[in-house]
């Protein structure tokens, strides 16, 4: 299947088959794919938490607003978090990034109000969501992006302090009777003419 067909086929799964396991090599591929996500100045201000443990998934499901059922049913939940403690993240920058990027980040940090810096860091994490959604369908998996989570409670359950959860992605195999299946619910988007300008 070519990339256009894959994108036409991808949709947000609303109901999962909770019996069908995801092959470990596909989970490993998703880990590596997310790691390879591009970001501005290659800053990589993220943490991707892969949750397969059923007990932990149940806890997170209970603070996932209208997404509780999806989180419970899907075999994998990936929590996308952004660096929130900027002093802790400075250590990451100092220890893990090459000097040129470090100097660049330090300049940005010195000249940007903290709130704006945090918005900019969070934007980078959303790039990984696009990569993750596309990678999932390419791997033959269904997925659901979810901003509908109680981020503070996710942080407490995951014992996170330096990073802050932004959103999550359920991954697995959609149920046969998922009402949102692409065959049942055709893609709904604004028209090409209204969103693309060609000059
Ligand atoms: C950042 C983001 C957050 C979303 N949050 C939720 C969510 O919490 N629950 C949900 O069921 N769908 C969620 N969606 C799915 C969107 O509603 C969906 O992508 C959109 O309606 C287009 O449909 P499609 O993904 O099936 O093509 C989210 C999508 C994005 C990109």
UniProtKB/TrEMBL annotation:
Cited Pfam families: Nitroreductase
GO molecular function terms attached to this record: oxidoreductase activity
Keyword Coiled coil: no
Keywords: Flavoprotein, FMN, NADP, Oxidoreductase
Cofactor(s) required, per the database record: FMN
Nitroreductase domain location: 7-173
Family assignment from sequence similarity: Belongs to the nitroreductase family.
PANTHER family, per database record: NAD(P)H NITROREDUCTASE YDGI-RELATED (PTHR43673), NITROREDUCTASE (PTHR43673:SF2)
Record protein name field: NAD(P)H-dependent oxidoreductase
Origin species: Flavobacterium aquariorum
């Amino acid at each position: 299947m070519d990339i256009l067909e894959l994108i036409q086929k991808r949709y947000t799964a609303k109901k999962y088959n909770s019996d069908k396991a995801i092959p470990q090599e596909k989970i490993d591929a998703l880990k590596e794919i997310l790691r390879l996500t591009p970001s501005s100045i290659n800053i990589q201000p993220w943490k991707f938490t892969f949750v397969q443990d059923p007990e932990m998934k149940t806890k997170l499901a209970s603070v996932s607003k209208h997404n509780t059922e999806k989180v419970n049913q899907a075999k994998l939940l990936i929590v996308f978090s952004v660096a929130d403690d900027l002093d802790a993240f400075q250590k990451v920058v100092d220890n893990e990034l090459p000097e040129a990027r470090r100097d660049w980040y330090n300049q940005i940090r010195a000249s940007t109000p903290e709130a704006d810096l945090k918005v900019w860091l969070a934007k980078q994490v959303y790039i990984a969501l696009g990569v993750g959604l596309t990678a999932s369908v390419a791997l033959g998996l269904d997925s659901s992006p979810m901003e509908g989570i109680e981020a503070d409670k996710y942080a407490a359950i995951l014992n996170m302090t330096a990073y802050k959860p932004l959103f999550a992605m359920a991954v697995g195999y959609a149920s046969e009777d998922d009402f949102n299946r692409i065959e049942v619910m055709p893609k709904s988007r604004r028209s090409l003419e209204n969103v693309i300008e060609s000059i």
